[in-house]
Design brief:
Largest sheet: 7 strands, mixed
Structural class: alpha/beta
Shape: globular
Number of strands: 28
Number of helices: 17
Radius of gyration: 26 Å
Distance between the termini: 91 Å
Helix content: 25-40%
Length: about 575
């Protein structure tokens, strides 16, 4: 029987000494000599052009598997040159909105400066975007304050506010292809992910908060005396919001949805890496009937626009999503200015616990998606994969095989599961952590290298024999790197899973309801997914413990971030009852 290697590593075969040798990375086999000879020729061509990448003969299929999409993976899926050789697909969308949005109009930055937003597939410029500064923040806050104090939005009948948000959702649905194209172009995420998962989530979220607009009310409170006491739930005022680059449009909706439903006005800073989709969506919101000044969008950089927003004395509330280190700065600036309340959704290093009785095949797939979805650029990524010792070896082999089948390439291609990382800085950070894992003694099962020579593509990387004190087990990598750790019993894994500065999320895979109950109550995190992962719904709250932040996004809990509670007490004269 002959075994013909295919993949990124070739050993000698009976064809002779002309077999290719590469750095050990991936290894698959076929028993068919004809296929083997053909593949060897293909690999020779790869050597000539010095390219590595991925393609898949399977078609893309979208389904829900534990909260994440699952892409089709045919038998023919393997590394190939196609993703690196093919010219990037040109998006069929025009970039029209690149200015700042202030007081209902798109305007240039006060300084006249612009900055470039980059296509992560190529490193080339997509567009030049207005670069805001302190003066632009002041203009935007003034417009938002005027709209809140004197404008129609907070005084509008709540049902009318609801109608504006519903019209906005309809426009998002109408323009879904354009929004998805912009999101993919600017961030590198797969188009199918943006079009079929994220944009529908944005639409659903806006309709959810539209439904809340006319259901926000206070309480009548019994008192110990002849008094009538009630609470009023009032909009907090001008909200400053800062969104990240990994889910720019989705978190744009997480932020503005509850703020606007409650009757507030907003000044929002986009991430400098991905400013385009929020500007496009903000234009649609004004087409839906949002009054001028209610939503203002400033593009720019953290040390200028972000700091100005956090320090501004006329901002009543801050909401930030991003790294823990930046979150500390946001909190400090808010405290030093006017003690404005701050909601923080920060980093994570989430444990994904595979118990000995788990359905291993399903656990492998969901654990894979928990780490590699969105190129691994998820704050809640299940990047610490704890596996019980009784199934550890089986899990590692299957996790490695699944990673090797992951389809990487131009995110506009239908079959691609993974696009490029956001930029060169993030790419280098990920590669540094991969080198750290190797140097610290973890076993590199797959990946570990750049894919192709253009753009910021990283091979799906799997480490086994990972120890808790390694950086890849402690730090938030924010990339396609899975660290697999072994454990013996529940008490041990609970202690190790909780031994982290972070507490954003966790996954549990078990067939025992008792084990599930034990773990869900013991884990110090804001979300626990049992036999699934990252199931996001408009009504389900999301946020963290410890240094993963405070406050909650989505659901009824997020409304509390944008409301003040006022107690009103007045005497009663000769009441019939108390």
């Amino acid at each position: 029987m002959q075994f013909w290697p295919i993949g990124n590593k070739l050993e000698e075969t009976e064809l002779g000494s002309n077999a290719l040798r590469r750095k050990p990375s991936y290894l698959q086999f076929t028993e068919d000599p004809a296929i083997g000879a053909f593949l060897l020729a293909v690999m020779t061509m790869r050597r000539i052009v010095s390219l590595t990448s991925r393609c898949s003969s399977s078609a893309y299929r979208l389904c829900r598997f534990g909260g994440f999409p699952s892409w089709g993976r045919g038998i023919g899926s393997r590394f190939s040159t196609s993703a690196a050789v093919e010219e990037p697909i040109s998006p069929s969308v025009n970039i029209e909105n690149t200015q700042l949005l202030i007081d209902g109009a798109f305007v240039d930055a006060a300084s006249g400066k612009t900055f470039s937003t980059i296509d992560p597939r190529t490193g080339e410029i997509i567009a030049h975007v207005a670069e805001g500064n302190q003066e632009d923040v002041n203009r935007a806050v003034l417009a938002a304050r005027r709209a809140f104090d004197n404008g129609p939005w907070p005084k509008m009948i709540p049902y009318e506010r609801s109608c504006v948000l519903l019209r906005f959702a309809d426009l998002l649905e109408k323009h879904r292809p354009e929004l998805a194209s912009i999101e993919t172009w600017d961030s590198g995420k797969p188009y199918k992910q943006a079009a079929d998962i994220e944009i529908p989530m944005v639409i659903r979220l806006m309709r959810y908060y539209a439904g809340w607009a006319d259901k926000i009310h206070g309480l009548t409170v019994p008192s110990d005396g002849q008094y009538h006491a009630q609470t009023l739930h009032e909009p907090i005022g001008v909200a400053g919001q800062i969104i990240p680059w990994n889910f720019p449009l989705l978190i744009f909706a997480w932020k503005i949805g509850p703020a606007l439903a409650c009757g507030n006005t907003v000044v929002l800073k986009t991430a400098e890496q991905t400013p385009l989709s929020a500007l496009y969506a903000a234009r649609l919101l004004h087409e839906a009937g949002l009054p001028p000044g209610v939503l203002n969008v400033i593009s720019g950089f953290g040390p200028t626009v972000g700091a100005a927003l956090c320090s501004h004395m006329d901002i009543d509330k801050l909401a930030f999503t991003g790294s823990t280190e930046t979150g500390k700065n946001v909190l400090g600036l808010a405290a030093k200015s006017n003690l404005k309340p701050v909601t923080l959704e920060l980093g994570g290093k989430s444990p994904f616990i595979i118990c000995g009785d788990a359905d291993i095949d399903k656990a492998v797939e969901v654990a894979h998606l928990a780490v590699f979805f969105n190129q691994g650029q998820c704050c809640c990524a299940g990047s610490r994969t704890f596996v019980h010792e009784s199934v550890y070896d089986e899990f590692v082999e299957k996790a490695k095989a699944r990673a090797m089948k992951r389809v990487i390439g131009d995110p506009f291609r239908q079959d691609v599961e993974q696009g490029p990382q956001i930029d060169s800085k993030q790419f280098e950070k990920i590669m540094t952590y991969i080198r750290s894992g190797i140097e610290s003694g973890a076993k590199l099962e797959s990946g570990g290298e750049q894919l192709g020579s253009k753009g910021f593509y990283v091979q799906p990387t799997v480490f086994s024999d990972v120890q808790d004190d390694m950086l890849i087990a402690k730090d938030e990598i924010f990339g396609p790197v899975q660290s697999i750790l072994k454990y013996k019993d529940l008490n041990e894994v609970i202690e190790r899973a909780n031994k982290s500065h972070y507490g954003l999320a966790a996954g549990v895979f078990t067939q025992s309801i008792d084990t599930a109950n034990t773990l869900t109550r013991a884990l110090r995190v804001g979300s626990v997914w049992v036999n699934c992962y990252a199931v996001f719904d408009a009504a389900i709250p999301f946020g963290g413990y410890k240094m993963s932040g405070h406050g909650r996004e989505r659901g009824i809990y997020s409304l509390r971030n944008y409301l003040q509670v006022k107690a009103v007490v007045q005497p009663l004269k000769d009441p019939a009852w108390l």
